[in-house]
Amino acid sequence: MSLVEISSAALYLAFVAYLLGTIFFGGAVKSASKEKSAYNKRWGFYGITITVIGFIANLVYFITRWIAAGHAPVSNLFEFTAAFGMMIVGAFILIYSMYRIAALGLFALPVAVIIIGYASMFPTDVSPLIPALQSHWLTIHVITAALGEAILAISAVAGLIWLLKNIDMTKKSKQRFWIEAVMYVLVVTIGFIVSTTVFSLTYEPVQYSYVNAEGNESVIEYKKPALFGMNESQAITEGAMEPLVNVPALVNGNKLTTVVWSVIFGTILYGLMRLVFRRRLAEVVQPFTKRTNSQLLDEIGYRSILIGFPIFSLGALIFAMIWAHEAWGRFWGWDPKEVWALITFLFYAVYLHLRLTKGWQGEKSAWLALIGFIIIMFNLIVVNLIIAGLHSYA
Amino acid sequence: MKTLECKCGHINPEGTQLCESCGRPLTEEARNKPLADMRYEGSARRSQTYNKTIIDKVWNFFSSVKVGMWIIVAILVAAAIGTILPQVFYVPANNATEAAAYYERVYGTFGKIYNDLGLSNLYSSWWFQGLIGLLGISLIIASLDRVIPLYKSLKKQKVRRHLSFLQRQRLFTKAEGVQEDVLTDAEKKLKELKYTVRRENGALLAEKGRFSRWGPYVNHLGLIIFLGGVMFRAIPGWYVDETMWLREGETLAVPGAPGYYLENNSFEFDVYDPTDSNEVFSDAIERVGTIASNYQTNLTLYRGENEEITGDPGELTEITEGPTIVNKPFKFESYNIYQMDFRLDELRSMTFQLQDKETEEAFGEQFTIDLVNPESDYDLGDGYRVELVNYYADFTGFEDGEPQSKSPIPNNPAFLIRMFTPDNPQPETSFVLIRETIEPFGENEYKIAFQSAETRDISGLTVRKDLTLPILMVGGIIFMIGVVQGSYWNHRRIWLQQTEDGVVYVAGHTNKNWNSVKKDLHIVTKDTQIPRPVDQQDPEADMDFDEGDEKS
Question: What are the start-end ranges of the E strands in B382-423?
Answer without folding.
Answer: 384-392, 395-399, 402-405, 414-421
